[in-house]
C-alpha cells in the first residue's frame, strides 16, 4: 500500500513542471518512505529520513527555489537515449533480483554471517540496548566518522560557494525587515514551541543509546529549531544570538572531537577508535566513547545544517536588497 | 477496569478515525480552498485529539503517555496554527473565498473560516 | 511463491528507475537533484528490505522479544542518507551559483552559452574580429 | 607507533582539515597543509618499506576483528599508490601557495585548503581500506570535496562543470552502493577479503553478476572510462590549476585502483572470465577511448582541455593493460598509473605557472612564450614527450611494458594500434610546441617573466622524477611487478 | 483494534495525496501536504502500538515537528516572493 503511494508520488514528480510542487511532493515522498522504513523495523533510519528528507532537504530546496525560476522549461525532444539507459539498468536489476533471498527470509545470508554477533554479543561488548547505535558508533565507528566528514565537506563546499560579503551583511541590518511580521499567532506559537524543540533535540541526543535517535538526528532537530526561529524572526536577530563565525567553528569542532577521541584511544594504547581503553572497564569505556562521538556528530551536523540555511538565506537577502 | 479502558479507547479511536475520514472527504469534495482548509483543520484537531487520547488510554502511565501528550500538544498547536497561517497567506496573496453569489452550495463553509 | 517473495524488490526497482530517469532525462538542474534524491532513497529501500526478518522487531534489545531485524543495513543506510543530504546541499549551492552566472537553470541554455564562449575564443585565436554576439550573453 | 601507520596516514589530513578553519590566516593554512601532506607522504613511504620487508599489514579499527569491524589492509599495491597520491599532493601543494593567490579571491583560500585536505583524506581512505562500504564513504568524501575545489574558482564554466561532475559522480556512487548492497545480500559480509572467501559459493547467482555489473559501471563513471568520460574535460579545464593538477594525477588513479582491487581481490579473475567478456569490453572501450579522446585533444584550443582529453586517452591505455588479464598487463597498468600521474601533475602545474603569469590557458596566448618562460615551457615539452612515450621518459617505460604485454598475449594488432595512437599524441603535443616556439609573441606576452621559483621547483621536481623514473626503473617496475604478482597470487 | 484506524488513516492519506496531485491552487497542495503529514503522525503512533513497541513514539514527535516547520517554510517562500502567482502554469 505505502509502496504504491510511493510509486504514484514518484510518477507525479516526473510529470510536474512546477518545481515548487515537485519539491512539496518530494517532501511527501520522504515522509512516505520514512513510514515504510518504520514498517520494515528500521526505526533509526525512519527517524533520520523524516528529519532529513522531509525536513532539512525540503527547506533547502525551497531556499534555492527562491533564487531560481519556478517553472521547468518543456524540453523539445523525447529523450530516447535516457529511456534506453534506464531500461537496460532496470533489466539488469530485475535480472539480479531473480536469485535474491526472499523478502523477510530469516535464512538469508545477510542474517547468518556478520549480524548475529551484533545482536547477541553487543550487549556484553558495548553495553547498549540499541544495537544500531552500538554498530554505528563502535563496530563501524569509522564509517560514521567518514559520514561526519562528508557533512563537513559539504558544509565547506557551501560556505565557499555562497560567501556573504560584508556589504550585504551591513545592508541586511538596516534594510531587511523581519519576515512574516503579520503572522502574529504563528510567531507566538513558534516561540512557545522553540524550547520544546530544543529540549527534545537534547533528549534524542542522549537517549540514542536506548531508543531510536542519536547525534545525527539530534543535530538535525536542533538545527530545525534554529531554522524555525530564523524563518519567523529574521536573519539579523538570529545571528545576533548565534554568531555565524562561531557556527563555522563548531562545524570543525565536531569533527575534531570525534577524531580526537580516536586519537586519544590511540595514545592510551588501543587502536584508533577503540573505546575500551578509555576507562578501566571496557564497557564503561565504550559508553564514554560513544557519548563523546555522538556529541561530535550532533555538533557538526547541527552546525553545518544551520550554516547551510544561513548561507542560502543570505543569498536571498543579497538578491533582494542589493540592487 | 481493563475491559472498560479498552472499550473506551476503542470508541475514541473509532470515532477519531471517523472524524478524520470526514475531514478527508471534505478536503476532497469541497469546492474551494478555504472550505477545504476548514474541513481539514477542524476535523484534524478533533480526529487527531480523539485518536491520541484513545492511544493514551492504552499506554498506561509512563514515558509513552508523556510522549503521546507531547504529540497531542504539538499537533494541537502546530496543525491549527499552520492552517490559520495558510489561510491568511492565501487571503493575502489574493485568493478570494467563494461567496454565495459565486456558488450557492458552499456558502456555509466559507463564512465560518478564520 | 517466487513472485510474492520478490514483489517488494520489484517495486523498489521501479522506483529506482523513475528516479534515475528523472536524473538523466530532465534538463532542469533542480529536478535532476530531486530525481537523485528519489534514486538514492530507493536504493535505501533495497538495503532496508534485505535487513527485514519476517516476524521480527526493531533491533533495540528488549526482554520481551527474541527475533530482531538485521541492524547492519540500518547503520549503512543512516550513513548513506547523510551522504545524500550532503550531496544535495552542495548541488543546490552550485545551482544557485550557476543561476547567478548563467541566468538559467536549464542544461541546454548553459551548454549553448558555453559553446558560444568557446567559439569566440576559437575565432579570436585565429585572428578574426569579434563577431556580433549571437546570444544575449550575461557575464556574471 | 609504526603499528598505527596505516590509520595515521588517513587520520592526519582528516584531523588537520578542520583545524584549518581555526587557523584562518590563508598563508599559514597553506604552509600547514604542506606539512600535513608531507607527513602523510613520509608515513606512506614508511608503509611501503614495511610492506616490502614484512608483507601485508592489517589494522583493526576500533579494535574489532575484521568482518565485524572495519579493517585497513595495506599490501604492495595500495602502499605503492598511497605513496603516489600523498607524494603528488605534497608537490602540488608546494606550488599552490603562489598559484592560488592568483586564481582565487583571498577569502576563499582557507576553504580551498580545507577541501583539498579532505579530498586527500578521501583518496587515501579509499586506498587503505579493506571494507566495501567504507570505500563508498570515503569516495563521497573525496568527491564532495573535489566538487568544491573545482567550483571554487572564478570561471563560471567551472560551476557548470562541477555540477555535471556532481550528478555523474553521484550516479556512479549510487551504482557502487547498489553493487555493494547486492554483494552484501548474497554473502552477509562487507569486508573485501571475507567477501572474496564467500563469493565463490554463489558465483552462479544472477544477483552477484548484477552486483558486479553495477559496481563496474559505477567505478567506470568515476574513472572516466571512454563513454562515461563526459564530466572530465570540462571539470579539469575550468577548475583552478592546482585542483586540476591534483585531481588529474590522483582521483582517476584511485578509481582504477578500486577497479583492480575488486576485479582481482574480491570477485577474482575466474569469476570475471566466467561471467562476462569483461576483457573484450575493456579492450574495445579502451581502444576507442584512446582514439576518440586523442583526436578530440588535437582540436582543443584550451590547453587544459587538451590535456584533459589526453587524460581520458591515457585512461584508455590503463584499462587496456587491465584488459590483457596477465601479470605483465597488470604491471603495465600499474606502471602507467604511476607514470601518468607524474606526467600530468608536471604538465598541469606548468600550465598553472603560465596561468600565473599571463592569466589564460588559451593556446593562442601561449604564442612566443618559449623565450619568455623557457624553464616552464621546457617542462611542458618534457611532459609532452613523456605523454608520447619518447625514450628516457617514464612514458616510454610504461608503453614499452604495455606493448610487450600485448605481444606476449599475442594481440599484435592491438599493439600496432597503440603505437599508432602515440602518433596522435605527437600531433597534439606538436601543436603546443608550435604555438610556444614558432609563433611570434603577442602584445600581451611582452612583459611576461619566468614563473616564480616557488612554482618552478615543484614543476621541475616532477619533471626530473619523470626522467629519473624513465631511466632508473628499479623502484617502479619492481614494485609494480610485486603488486601484480600478489594480485594473481591471491587467486592461485 | 488498532488495525481499523490504521486502515482508515491510510485511506485518508490516499485522499490527501489525490488532493496534492490535483491542485488546483498551490495552497491546496500545501494544505494537502499538511494534512498528509498530520495523518502520518497518527499512523505512526498507531503502527507503534500495532507493533507492540510504543517506545518509538519519538519518531511521531519528529514528524509532527518537521511537518510544522516545513509548512512554515513553504509559507515563507511566498512571503518572500509575494508576487508569485498562486495559480499554476497552464
Strand content of chain A: under 5%
Radius of gyration of chain A (Å): 23 Å
Beta-strand percentage range of chain E: under 5%
User: Which two protein chains have the largest interface (Cβ within 8 Å of the partner's Cβ), and how many residues from each?
Assistant: A-C, 94 and 83 residues
The whole-number mean of residue pLDDT values of chain E reads 77
Shape of chain E: flat
How far the N terminus sits from the C terminus of chain E, by CA atoms, comes to 46 Å
Largest sheet of chain A: none
- Number of structural domains of chain A: 2
Note the run of SSEs of chain A as H and E. HHHHHHHHHHHHHH
Kindly state the percentage of residues in helix of chain A.
over 70%
Descriptive account of the structure:
The complex is a heteropentamer of chains A (323), B (114), C (140), D (492) and E (90). Chain A has helices at residues 2-15, 19-39, 43-65, 80-97, 109-112, 115-125, 131-139, 141-161, 166-175, 184-207, 215-233, 235-241, 244-267, 282-321. Chain A has 323 residues and is mainly α. Chain A folds into 2 domains: 1-100, NADH-ubiquinone/plastoquinone oxidoreductase chain 6, subunit NuoJ (Four Helix Bundle (Hemerythrin (Met), subunit A), Up-down Bundle), CATH 1.20.120.1200; 130-323, no CATH class. In chain A, helix 11 packs across helix 12 (235-241). The longest helix of chain A is centred in the last third of the chain and has 40 residues, at 282-321. Chain C folds into 2 domains: 2-57 and 67-105, Orthogonal Bundle (Helix Hairpins); 111-140, no CATH class. Chain C is 70% helix and 0% strand. In chain C, helix 1 (2-25) runs antiparallel to helix 2 (29-51). Chain C is elongated, with a radius of gyration of 24 Å. Chain D has a two-stranded antiparallel ribbon. Chain E is mostly helical. At the A-E interface, helix 1, helix 2, helix 3, helix 10 and helix 11 of A face helix 1, helix 2 and helix 3 of E.
Amino acid at each position: 500500500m505505502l509502496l504504491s503511494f510511493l510509486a504514484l508520488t514518484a510518477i507525479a514528480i516526473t510529470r510536474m513542471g512546477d518545481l515548487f510542487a515537485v519539491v512539496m511532493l518530494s517532501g511527501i515522498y520522504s515522509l512516505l518512505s520514512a513510514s515504510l522504513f518504520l514498517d520494515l523495523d528500521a526505526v533509526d533510519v525512519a527517524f533520520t529520513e523524516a528529519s532529513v528528507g522531509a525536513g532539512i532537504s525540503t527547506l533547502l530546496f525551497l531556499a534555492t527555489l527562491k533564487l531560481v525560476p519556478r517553472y521547468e522549461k518543456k524540453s523539445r525532444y523525447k529523450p530516447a537515449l535516457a529511456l534506453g539507459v534506464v531500461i537496460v539498468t532496470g533489466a539488469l536489476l530485475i535480472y539480479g533480483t531473480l536469485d535474491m533471498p526472499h523478502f523477510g527470509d530469516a535464512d538469508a545470508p545477510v542474517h547468518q554471517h556478520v549480524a548475529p554477533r551484533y545482536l547477541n554479543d553487543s550487549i556484553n561488548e558495548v553495553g547498549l540496548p540499541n544495537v544500531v547505535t552500538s554498530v554505528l558508533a563502535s563496530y563501524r565507528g569509522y564509517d560514521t566518522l567518514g559520514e561526519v566528514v562528508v557533512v563537513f565537506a559539504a558544509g565547506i563546499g557551501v560556505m565557499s560557494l555562497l560567501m556573504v560579503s560584508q556589504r550585504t551583511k551591513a545592508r541586511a541590518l538596516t534594510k531587511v525587515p523581519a519576515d512574516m511580521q503579520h503572522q502574529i499567532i504563528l510567531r507566538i506559537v513558534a516561540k512557545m514551541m522553540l524550547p520544546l524543540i530544543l529540549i527534545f533535540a537534547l533528549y534524542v541526543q542522549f537517549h540514542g543509546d536506548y531508543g531510536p535517535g542519536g547525534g545525527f538526528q539530534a543535530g538535525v532537530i536542533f538545527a530545525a529549531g534554529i531554522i524555525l526561529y530564523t524563518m519567523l524572526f529574521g536573519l539579523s536577530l538570529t545571528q545576533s544570538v548565534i554568531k555565524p563565525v562561531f557556527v563555522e567553528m563548531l562545524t570543525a569542532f565536531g569533527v575534531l572531537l570525534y577524531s580526537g577521541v580516536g586519537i586519544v584511544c590511540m595514545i592510551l594504547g588501543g587502536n584508533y577508535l577503540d573505546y575500551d581503553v578509555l576507562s578501566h572497564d571496557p564497557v564503561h569505556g565504550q559508553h564514554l566513547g560513544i557519548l563523546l562521538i555522538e556529541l561530535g556528530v550532533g555538533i557538526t551536523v547541527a552546525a553545518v545544517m544551520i550554516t547551510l540555511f544561513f548561507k542560502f538565506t543570505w543569498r536571498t537577502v543579497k538578491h533582494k536588497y542589493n540592487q | 477496569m481493563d475491559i472498560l479502558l479498552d472499550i473506551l479507547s476503542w470508541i475514541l479511536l473509532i470515532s477519531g478515525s471517523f472524524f478524520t475520514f470526514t475531514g478527508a472527504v471534505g478536503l476532497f469534495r469541497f469546492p474551494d480552498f478555504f472550505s477545504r482548509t476548514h474541513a481539514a483543520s477542524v476535523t484534524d484537531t478533533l480526529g487527531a485529539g480523539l485518536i491520541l487520547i484513545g492511544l493514551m488510554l492504552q499506554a498506561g502511565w509512563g514515558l509513552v503517555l508523556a510522549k503521546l501528550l507531547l504529540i497531542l500538544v504539538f499537533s494541537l498547536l502546530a496543525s491549527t496554527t499552520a492552517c490559520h497561517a495558510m489561510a491568511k497567506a492565501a487571503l493575502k496573496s489574493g485568493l478570494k473565498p467563494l461567496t454565495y453569489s459565486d456558488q450557492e452550495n458552499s456558502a456555509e463553509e466559507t463564512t465560518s473560516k478564520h | 511463491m517466487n513472485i510474492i517473495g520478490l514483489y517488494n524488490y520489484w517495486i523498489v526497482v521501479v522506483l529506482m528507475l523513475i528516479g534515475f530517469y528523472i536524473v538523466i532525462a530532465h534538463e532542469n538542474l533542480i529536478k535532476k537533484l530531486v530525481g537523485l534524491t528519489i534514486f538514492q532513497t530507493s536504493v535505501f529501500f533495497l538495503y532496508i528490505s534485505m535487513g527485514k526478518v519476517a516476524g521480527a522487531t526493531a533491533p533495540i534489545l528488549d526482554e520481551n522479544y527474541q527475533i530482531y531485524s538485521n541492524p547492519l543495513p540500518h547503520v549503512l543506510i543512516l550513513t548513506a542518507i547523510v551522504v545524500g543530504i550532503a550531496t544535495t546541499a552542495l548541488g543546490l549551492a552550485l545551482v544557485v551559483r550557476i543561476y547567478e552566472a548563467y541566468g538559467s537553470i536549464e542544461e541546454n541554455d548553459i551548454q549553448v552559452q558555453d559553446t558560444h564562449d568557446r567559439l569566440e575564443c576559437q575565432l579570436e585565436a585565429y585572428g578574426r574580429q569579434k563577431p556580433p554576439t549571437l546570444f544575449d550573453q550575461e557575464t556574471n | 607507533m609504526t603499528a598505527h601507520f596505516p590509520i595515521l596516514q588517513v587520520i592526519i589530513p582528516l584531523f588537520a582539515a578542520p583545524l584549518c578553519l581555526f587557523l584562518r590566516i590563508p598563508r599559514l593554512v597553506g604552509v600547514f597543509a604542506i606539512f600535513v601532506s608531507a607527513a602523510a607522504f613520509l608515513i606512506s613511504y614508511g608503509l611501503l618499506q614495511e610492506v616490502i620487508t614484512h608483507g601485508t599489514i592489517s589494522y583493526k579499527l576500533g579494535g574489532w576483528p575484521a568482518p565485524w569491524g572495519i579493517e585497513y589492509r595495506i599490501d604492495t599495491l595500495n602502499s605503492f599508490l598511497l605513496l603516489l597520491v600523498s607524494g603528488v599532493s605534497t608537490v602540488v601543494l608546494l606550488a599552490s601557495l603562489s598559484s592560488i593567490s592568483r586564481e582565487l579571491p583571498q577569502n576563499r583560500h582557507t576553504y580551498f585548503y580545507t577541501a583539498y585536505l579532505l579530498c586527500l583524506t578521501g583518496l587515501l581512505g579509499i586506498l587503505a581500506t579493506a571494507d566495501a562500504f567504507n570505500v563508498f564513504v570515503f569516495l563521497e568524501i573525496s568527491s564532495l570535496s573535489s566538487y568544491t575545489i573545482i567550483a571554487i574558482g572564478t570561471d563560471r564554466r567551472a560551476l557548470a562543470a562541477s555540477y555535471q561532475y556532481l550528478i555523474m559522480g553521484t550516479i556512479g556512487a549510487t551504482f557502487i552502493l547498489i553493487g555493494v548492497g547486492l554483494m552484501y545480500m548474497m554473502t552477509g559480509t562487507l569486508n573485501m577479503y571475507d567477501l572474496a572467501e564467500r563469493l565463490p559459493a554463489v558465483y552462479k547467482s544472477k544477483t552477484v553478476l548484477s552486483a558486479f555489473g553495477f559496481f563496474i559501471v559505477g567505478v567506470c563513471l568515476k574513472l572516466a572510462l571512454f563513454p562515461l568520460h563526459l564530466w572530465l574535460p570540462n571539470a579539469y579545464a575550468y577548475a583552478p590549476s592546482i585542483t586540476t593538477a591534483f585531481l588529474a594525477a590522483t582521483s582517476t588513479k584511485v578509481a582504477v585502483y578500486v577497479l583492480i582491487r575488486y576485479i582481482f581481490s574480491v570477485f577474482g579473475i575466474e569469476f570475471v572470465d566466467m561471467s562476462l567478456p569483461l576483457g573484450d569490453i575493456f579492450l574495445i572501450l579502451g581502444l576507442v577511448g584512446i582514439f576518440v579522446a586523442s583526436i578530440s585533444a588535437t582540436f582543443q584550443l584550451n590547453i587544459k582541455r587538451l590535456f584533459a582529453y589526453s587524460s581520458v586517452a591515457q585512461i584508455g591505455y590503463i584499462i587496456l593493460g587491465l584488459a590483457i588479464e596477465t601479470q605483465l598487463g597488470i604491471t603495465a597498468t600499474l606502471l602507467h598509473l604511476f607514470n601518468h600521474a607524474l606526467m600530468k601533475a608536471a604538465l598541469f602545474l606548468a600550465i598553472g605557472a603560465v596561468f600565473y603569469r599571463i592569466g589564460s590557458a588559451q593556446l593562442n596566448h601561449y604564442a612566443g612564450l618559449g623565450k619568455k618562460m623557457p624553464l616552464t615551457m621546457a617542462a611542458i615539452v618534457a611532459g609532452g614527450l613523456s605523454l608520447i612515450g619518447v625514450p628516457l621518459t617514464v612514458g616510454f617505460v610504461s608503453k614499452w611494458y604495455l606493448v610487450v604485454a600485448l605481444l606476449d598475449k599475442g594481440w599484435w594488432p592491438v599493439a600496432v594500434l597503440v603505437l599508432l595512437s602515440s602518433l596522435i599524441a605527437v600531433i597534439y603535443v606538436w601543436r603546443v610546441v608550435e604555438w610556444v616556439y614558432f609563433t611570434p609573441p603577442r602584445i600581451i606576452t611582452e612583459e611576461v617573466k619566468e614563473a616564480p621559483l616557488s612554482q618552478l621547483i615543484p614543476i621541475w621536481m616532477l619533471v626530473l622524477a619523470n626522467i629519473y623514473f624513465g631511466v632508473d626503473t628499479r623502484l617502479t617496475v619492481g614494485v609494480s611487478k610485486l603488486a601484480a604478482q600478489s594480485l594473481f597470487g591471491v587467486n592461485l | 483494534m488498532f488495525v481499523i484506524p490504521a486502515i482508515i488513516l491510510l485511506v485518508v492519506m490516499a485522499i490527501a495525496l489525490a488532493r496534492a496531485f490535483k491542485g488546483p491552487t498551490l495552497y491546496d497542495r500545501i494544505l494537502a501536504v499538511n494534512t498528509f503529514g498530520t495523518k502520518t503522525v497518527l499512523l505512526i503512533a498507531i503502527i507503534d502500538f500495532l507493533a507492540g513497541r510504543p517506545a518509538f513514539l519519538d519518531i511521531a514527535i519528529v514528524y509532527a515537528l518537521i511537518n510544522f516547520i516545513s509548512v512554515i517554510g513553504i509559507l515563507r517562500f511566498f512571503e518572500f516572493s509575494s508576487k508569485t502567482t498562486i495559480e499554476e502554469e497552464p
